[in-house]
């Protein structure tokens, strides 16, 4: 398989990232999220949301893409942890998606590694994952994340995971 390259997302990547995100939702959340919600997802609407991020110069979010053989095959988004409207000193992994055809090929691991590196000055990284998404939970646990007991209590419950960024000894 061709070399995987992680780079900052650029405006021309928005359509492809939207395709990956919608396909990722439909793949990973089938049976976990109501099917009607998955059916209503729109690549076009999602791409427009991605473009809107680029129009906000004060957006603290870092968007990364994974590229293999010149084609974007994954996307991650990271920035300050959001506690309601307040940003904290911790980092948050907002999203991480691989093209379903590239799951298990190291795309997610490479994106997560780069997201951790880009937020290394933050004491911790937190993320939310669907409680019943066992595949994603195993992925994050292998990367050193642990559930911290927080849950959101929505119709499709999420649990919060945390990993210390501080290195010692």
Globular, elongated, flat, extended or rod-shaped: what is the shape? globular
**Backbone structural class:** alpha+beta
Low-confidence sequence ranges: none
Share of helix, binned: 25-40%
For this structure, the quaternary state is single chain
Percent of residues in β-strands: 25-35%
Number of strands: 7
Our count of helices gives 5
Strand order of the main beta sheet, please?
Answer: 1-2-3-4-5-7-6
Question: What is the H-and-E element order?
Answer: EHHHEEEHEHEE
Mean pLDDT value: 93
Radius of gyration: 16 Å
Ends distance: 37 Å
Major β-sheet, in short? 7 strands, mixed
Q: How is the topology of this model organized?
A:
Elements: E1 4-8, H1 14-28, H2 35-39, H3 43-54, E2 62-68, E3 71-83, E4 86-98, H4 107-118, E5 124-130, H5 134-142, E6 146-151, E7 158-164
Parallel strand pairs: 4-5
Antiparallel strand pairs: 1-2, 2-3, 3-4, 5-7, 6-7
């Amino acid at each position: 398989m061709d070399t995987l390259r992680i780079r900052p997302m650029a405006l021309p990547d928005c359509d492809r990232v939207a395709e990956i995100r919608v396909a990722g939702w439909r793949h990973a959340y089938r049976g976990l999220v109501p099917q009607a919600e998955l059916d209503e997802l729109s690549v076009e609407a999602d791409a427009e949301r991605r473009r809107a991020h680029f129009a906000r110069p004060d957006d603290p979010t870092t968007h990364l893409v994974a590229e293999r053989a010149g084609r974007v095959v994954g996307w991650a988004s990271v920035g300050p942890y959001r506690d309601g409207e307040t940003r904290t000193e911790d980092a948050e992994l907002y999203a991480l998606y691989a093209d379903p055809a590239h799951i298990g090929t190291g795309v997610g691991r490479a994106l997560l590694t780069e997201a951790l590196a880009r937020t290394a000055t933050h004491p911790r990284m937190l993320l939310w994952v669907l409680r019943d998404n066992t595949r994603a939970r195993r992925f994050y646990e292998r990367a050193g994340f642990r559930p911290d007991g927080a849950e959101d209590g929505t119709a499709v419950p999420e649990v919060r995971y945390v990993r210390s960024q501080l290195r010692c000894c």
